[in-house]
Design goal:
The complex is a heterodimer of chains A (121) and B (325). Helix content of chain A is 50%, strand content 13%. Chain A has one domain: Winged helix-like DNA-binding domain superfamily/Winged helix DNA-binding domain (Arc Repressor Mutant, subunit A), CATH 1.10.10.10. Chain A contains 5 helices and 4 strands; from the N terminus they run H-E-H-H-E-E-H-E-H. In chain A, strand 2 and strand 3 form a beta hairpin. The longest helix of chain A is centred in the middle third of the chain and has 14 residues. Chain A has a 3-stranded antiparallel β-sheet with strand order 1-3-2. By secondary structure, chain B is mostly helical. Chain B has one domain. Chain B is built from 12 helices and 4 strands. The two termini of chain B are 21 Å apart. Classes of the chains: A alpha+beta (121), B mainly alpha (325). Strand 4 of chain A pairs antiparallel with strand 3 of chain B, so a sheet runs across the interface.
Chain lengths: 121, 325
Amino acid sequence: MGPLETSVMQRLWAVEQPQTVREVQEFIAADRTIAYTTVMTVLDNLHGKGFVTRERQGRAYVYSPRETREEYTASLLGNALADGGDRRGVLMHFVDRLDEEALASLRQLLQEPGNDPEGVP
Amino acid sequence: MSHAAGFFALAGAFMLAGHFGLGRARWTHRSPRLAIAFWQALAGAVVVSLLLGSICLALPGFSPVGTAGEILHACFVELRRQYSTPAGAAVSAVGFGLFFLVMWRVARALTRHHREATLARRQHRQALALVESPLGQDVVVLDHGSAAVYCIPDGRRSRRGKIVVTRGAADHLTARQLELVLRHERVHLAARHDRLVQRSLALAEALPLLPFFGVAHQEIADLAEMHADDGIETEDGPELASALLQLAVMTPSRVPSGALAATGGATLARARRLVRPQPPLRRMTTGLIVAAIVGTGAAPALLTAYSGGESGFTHACCSRPALFS
């Protein structure tokens, strides 16, 4: 995902209505010079990758994001957490989710550090 | 044949020593770094011994100690001798088969894991770029209510990477706790724990019939977490342990409940040594452990030199003429 694709997605997420290529281009052009055809190519790529959906409106397409920003973030995080964690060596997580029993033991350990049955003296 | 037996016995002894010795030793939590090195030495020595044992089975007089010319000549002579009897041919074929099977499976698993991890990380970094917002030089925040902190190692030679903190995690930790958690993740990146874990997992998958490698993988993964915890000052231990609990409560479920127990025990062991730090190993003990690690790594080479000295190629080629006729 290049910086240009990121800017385009930011625009689509920031507004309610579906956007035409022209609208997106004018938004990005506020920051930097960018050609209409470049934005068109980027939107077409994003459509190909499944990030945006499009509908024909008159002679042009209007684009909207396939998922909201929140949905996208949730599925991204879900993927990150589902990879098997540290044990596959892809991402290294700080901590795994624990079952109730382990959580209870952990709580007890933190509250009364001296009272741990398995502790080494 | 007896040399092959020697190498296989060595591999077996190392596997037992790891499984029942190192796996149950108490000092490992006091020096996770040394323990990781020990597991790696054991795993490496087992693989090398298995390969050398297979070669000895295929070429009984073979010894890696010698010049290339000698080795080629010996291979030729040995092969002709081995294949002159049906039993010899069978043993030799088994040896070659074993050698290439182990080589192929290990090499394939290592490259596959490396490739898959590289690809998965690249995709994740790209997907992240759309929604991340920078928090520090190597830290980004992900706008999501649940709690998670993890790092994405950069790649092959880099000791850097990106640390991802969710908004939920940042909100529920104190500034001090967050700083400690980030330090934990930075140790992961600097020590390339991802690579350690990846390699041990590849070995465990390549040689599933040898439970030693599964144990080694589990231990290395757990010890890597403890080593990362050692990146903070001892007096900050209880604070990091609180962060551990805070995040464990809020981390969304991602593993089936059956797998939880295993990680639960490891997390508890981590918390225990954070809350009640144990004294570091004495210098004498450390020295003994280092010697054992070096000895383990050197053992297959020593056995090779020993068997090479005792029955070199001269012996195999010239002293048993009856076999050639």
